[in-house]
Design a protein that fits this description.
Oligomer: single chain
Strand order of the largest sheet: 7-8-10-9-13-17-14-15
Helix content: 25-40%
Bound molecules: ligand BES, manganese (II) ion, zinc ion
Shape: elongated
Strand content: 15-25%
Number of strands: 19
Radius of gyration: 24 Å
CATH class of the largest domain: Alpha Beta
Largest sheet: 8 strands, mixed
Length: 512
């Protein structure tokens, strides 16, 4: 009895620590460590610390001997100068000195640096990017934290762990850097960690109710946040037949989680972000091919990013009213599952013929987005959804697909994408796409067999949004996960796509 209690506590402690975001501390005292990461400009130009360490010319010599060019995102391991406290130094290229890198470029330099350092040293070095501008340092720190992300909690072999517990950044203006960093980038980085974590978790761990519990835990203690969750009985009562129909095939019943953060002026219409939260998508009775089905644990990434966006903005105490809605269900084939040909009635009153039970994302969104639209009368209604394979075939891993009836919204989202790194590309949505989902049995059907997949999916969602509501749909099926490391994410798997985009867009649009 006592032993098993200890076991449970140890397990709890283990999970709790191994999924913690990497912490980042700034210091102006050079810490004791064998290993140093040192920033070097192109042509070998050194900063203040670099020049001190190079008193005997050892570093300059090593730079020449290794032909290290200092290009952005490059690195070179060298022995530390004789007589210094360090043993090894990893030089990190900062690019041209006069080059005004964008925020994103600095972030990517930081992210590549941590990954190269972990590769070279296997343990945590001291980071001295050796630049003096506090805003640049904050960007490097943010990038390093994002770039340290690795979903390694299930590795029992500690040799395989890559995520650093703590990154220590040395710089002269440590205090002002940490003030900038902690009030801006740190909450965003933490939000992205939480978003990636929950998206990476397998579907035996994350199902509708555990999604709700996990985020409820994260929001605990944060200011101005209200959470309301609808269960399957509430859905029946409210007439949410579309989300209910998707969820009813699973023993893990559907949920709709609604989180309000009213940090702005009282009475100002909020921005509402709705996310597709299919905790596992088998396709239902329209069963998917088993080959890549395991990947469908990521099918709740839109819902995770909606919550992550709210977490990021609330963490910055942003003066904005924001609502995040997660439309959660597990799409399973079973004796209680809905069938192709079934007709369901959505909360809006519109009836839907189910053509494919695998086009389930748009069904859960139909009710959640209608709820968000009429309940909040939003200033802007956004949805994020891993909706179609078709968007990934068109746009690959670099852009999400953006769809809207309000073209004047597009340019600012493209900008936010370029600034933040979560890039977007507009795809068409016109009357023909709405025609393609008309149905002879019900008001609409959930797939338009003769229409381009991503646009038909967008039109279906749009059919549940009032026409003059400012609404934008992002199909993130191509970008929500990947199989390669990137500067901002060392881990294969979930990218956390959407948090950086919406954080940037909302801050610029509503707070400046
Ligand atoms: N979750 C999938 C979309 C998806 C596919 C995401 C591949 C990532 C990779 C979605 O629910 C789905 O099954 N969409 C179908 C729609 C079709 C049945 C109209 C698709 O894209 O094939
Ligand atoms: Mn599906
Ligand atoms: Zn799906």
């Amino acid at each position: 009895m006592r032993l098993s209690l200890v076991f449970v506590l140890v397990m709890l402690f283990n999970t709790a620590t191994s999924t913690q975001p990497t912490s980042l501390t700034f210091t102006d005292q050079l810490p004791d460590n064998d290993l140093l990461v040192l920033g070097v400009y192109q042509e070998g130009e050194l900063g203040t610390l670099g020049q001190q360490l190079d008193a005997q010319g050892d570093i300059s010599h090593a730079i020449q001997a290794t032909a290290f060019e200092g290009k952005a995102k490059s690195s070179q391991l060298i022995p530390a100068p004789k007589g210094s406290d360090f043993k090894q130094i990893l030089l990190i290229g900062l690019g041209e000195k006069e080059a005004k890198h964008s925020d994103l470029e600095w972030q990517n330099i930081g992210g590549q640096a941590i990954q190269d350092a972990v590769e070279a040293f296997k343990k945590a070095p001291v980071f001295a990017f050796d630049v003096s501008d506090a805003a640049v340092l904050a960007n490097l720190a943010y990038g390093a934290k994002l770039g340290s992300y690795y979903f390694d909690k299930y590795y029992t072999d500690s040799e395989r762990h890559k995520r650093q517990k703590n990154i220590v950044m040395f710089s002269e203006g440590a205090d002002s850097t940490s003030t900038i960093y902690n009030s801006t980038w740190e909450p965003v980085a933490n939000a992205i960690y939480l978003t990636r974590n929950i998206s990476n978790e397998p579907a035996n761990v994350i199902y509708p109710q555990s999604f709700v519990d996990t985020w409820t835990g994260h929001f605990k203690g944060m200011n101005k946040i209200k959470i309301k969750t609808y269960d399957e009985k509430d859905m029946v009562k409210k007439g949410m037949g579309a989300i209910y129909g998707v969820g009813k095939g699973s023993s893990r019943q559907p949920r709709m989680m609604v989180v309000e953060y009213m940090g702005g002026k009282k009475g100002d219409a909020p921005v509402v972000v709705v996310g597709k939260g299919i905790t596992f998508d088998t396709g239902g009775i329209s069963l998917k091919n088993p080959k890549n089905m395991w990947n469908m644990k990521f099918d709740m990434s839109g819902a995770a990013a909606a919550m992550g966006t709210l977490y990021a903005l609330a963490g910055q105490n942003a003066e904005v009213n924001l609502v995040a809605i997660a439309a959660l269900a597990e799409n399973m084939p079973s004796a209680t599952a809905q069938r192709p040909g079934d007709v369901v009635t959505s909360m809006s009153g519109k009836t839907i013929q189910i053509r494919s039970t695998d086009a389930e994302g748009r069904l859960v969104l139909a009710d959640a987005i209608h709820y968000g639209d009429i309940k909040y009368d939003p200033a802007l209604l956004i949805d994020l959804a891993t909706l179609t394979g078709s968007v990934g075939r068109a746009l690959g891993k670099d852009f999400s697909g953006m769809f809207t009836r309000h073209d004047d919204l597009v340019a600012d989202f493209i900008d936010a994408g370029k600034n933040s790194g979560d890039e977007v590309w507009q795809l068409p949505l016109n009357d023909n796409h709405f025609k393609a989902i008309e149905n002879d049995v019900a008001d609409v059907m959930n797939s338009g067999p003769d229409a381009p997949g991503a646009s038909a999916g967008a039109a279906f969602i749009g059919a549940f949004v009032r026409e003059d509501t400012q609404w934008v749909h992002f199909d993130i099926a191509g970008v929500a996960w990947g199989s390669n490391a990137q500067p901002h994410n060392a881990s294969p798997g979930a990218s956390g796509y959407g948090v950086r985009l919406l954080n940037d867009y909302i801050l610029n649009k509503y707070l400046k």
